[in-house]
Amino acid sequence: MKKILDQIRGNKWLQLGLLVGYIALTSLSLILAQRSVAAFLLLLLSFLLLYYTKLPNWSKWAIGLAIMFFILPFSAMQGPAYQEYMDVATLVGIYVSMALGLNIVVGMAGLLDLGFVAFFAVGAYTYGIFATAQANNFMPFGTYPLSGNSFWIFIILGCFVAALFGVLLGIPVLRVKGDYLAIVTLGFGEIIRIVFNNMDQPVNITNGALGLSSIAPPKIFGIELLYSNQIYFVVLFILLFIIFAVRSLEHSKLGRSWKAVRENEIAAQAMGIPLVKTKLMAFAIGASFSGMMGVVFAAKQAFIDPTSFTLLQSINILVMVLLGGMGSVPGVILGAAVVTILNAQVLNELTMWFNSLSTAGIITLPDAMSPVKMQRFFFGALLILFALYRSKGLIPAKNVVYDKRKFLSEKGTKKRLQSVAAPKEDEHDHTGS
Amino acid sequence: MTILEVEKLTKTFGGLTANKEISLQAEANKITAVIGPNGAGKTTFFNMITGVYKPTSGSIKLRGESIGGLKPHAVAKKGISRTFQNIRLFGPITVLENVLVGMHTHLKAGIFGTIFHLPGVDKEERIAEREAYRLLEYVGLEEHYNDEAASLSYGSQRRLEIARALATKPSVLLLDEPAAGMNPKETADLTGLIEKIKQEMDMTIILIEHDMKLVMEISDYIYVLDHGELIAEGLPAQVRHDKKVIEAYLGKGAAEEQEAEG
Ligand SMILES: Nc1ncnc2c1ncn2[C@@H]1O[C@H](COP(=O)(O)OP(=O)(O)O)[C@@H](O)[C@H]1O
Ligand SMILES: [Mg+2]
User: Fold this and answer.
1) B175, B73: one domain
2) Does chain B have fewer CB atoms within 10 Å around its N or its C terminus?
3) Region entry Disordered: which residue ranges (chain A) (predicted)?
4) Which residue of B has its CA nearest to A409?
């Protein structure tokens, strides 16, 4: 057995073959057994296997994209549970994006934020208010609702509005550190929710606790995107952009300054890193991811109200980051996927299974242990297990490995970086002075 | 020529006067040492120059320009860099990345350029990586460039702090007890390195150090602090025989004894 495993570990062609076989098998079983959540999950698991293969990066991406764009939608398409599966996949995409945003704030810059869902809410309301008749109440010009064609612009708007709120939150909040920061951000998250809950008077901007309904669905080339299988692709494109952005930032000047600030503020400043600006950038960029997905969420649900943006949601996103591995991009993606799927599918399935067992009279459960109540219990127990046995996360953060041949040999690098520091003394030969 | 000129710098913490009217002049391309017993106020002095502490009173001038009260990152940008007595590396990231952080102010990459890999950004990174690697070669740590900074030995960590400080391309380099915790061989190597930096990089260096052999060997001029006050200054040969200095280090009795002998 060990021999076989060693062989698999060493041979990437064998890995490729096994992976393709696995994907074929799981997608086929999903096609044949449409109601089987297990088949769906096993197909999703292929992403994780793909991550651990030794294939070159470009081919990992090629296979991954093929699964996301073709294999997954196609295999799920064949039966009645299609929209359900696509809904879960869409949710996963939304939460992964948010978790990647929070990971910049908490994981990379080391700023504990317990009110992160506020930015998601800001994005959702930005679109919700203007894509319903709501905006007529206070806008002096224009007629509302805006059509679904505006959705695409609102993704970018949501991004910037949320970033702006990130900075607004940051300016007062960054005066405090550590535990206090967590408490202040928690307060901010609640304030945003309560403000949305109460901005129905004197001027009705958010429609208060009643929420906004009939939000215009996204529209492209005259087609309204009403179903999860359509929204899925919108989310997929944004998510891919976010992953690309995060990957670029991670090992850049900015990413390094986040880590420097996280590890030692005094040393970071001594290296010329402005503390406040660097932290604000983390807040703004993290928030912007959430803002974009907030817009998508509002369009997808067609209804939003303040109860979608509670403290529990913020904690949920934080759990994704912690479970996946703080500061680790693949880890956070996995963490967000696991938590979302657990909540949206596995625990529900488990509940239904227990329910059917008890109605069939096979087991009898006292009322206090009814399956619905057990759901949260299982989730909590799982978290405790992970915290105990994988405290650095499912995929702990790794450092980038540089290849010195690359930067030592590259053409055109003969040039030196310009010195912006004070000019060299030309009188240093003078003896004494 | 004087590059850094400090005049009557004072810092009080509540009732404690950590620095009392300290004046110092650092000459270009020279090594100026600041010595004194523990708690004399040497690190506090560095912290005021680098903007970590705001001076209670007094002035700090770099090439005639006042830099007192500037934020630490602004001081770094002006061309003053430092190492720390209690090592402050970015532990979990790599040795090379630590030096790259030091290049911060010399990199132009903006947020959009970074995200969209605009031309120039990647190239700038390559150049920075190469320069960072060269600095590691300079301090003798190139073999460890992909290691976690925290995994280095104590002596190597101190050298990495020097490489990181050099990455900011300073005109004045402040070293706070760079030899602390080093064995005699490491200290000798370090002495050579500091000399080399002074000569090859035309560096103005201010050095806090307890190792008297090192100080006497490489310093051009020495300031002596005790209880927050400047008690002596002069060339190494002068300071070595200063009565007040011997007193501060060895106590009054010892000073008298030495006088009787000499
Ligand atoms: N942030 C601070 N708050 C209060 N006291 C301080 C602070 N920093 C230094 N001190 C005090 O100032 C005095 C000088 O300390 P320091 O400059 O670290 O001495 P040295 O580096 O010469 O050993 C000490 O008594 C120390 O306790
Ligand atoms: Mg000290």
Assistant:
1) yes
2) C
3) 413-433
4) B130
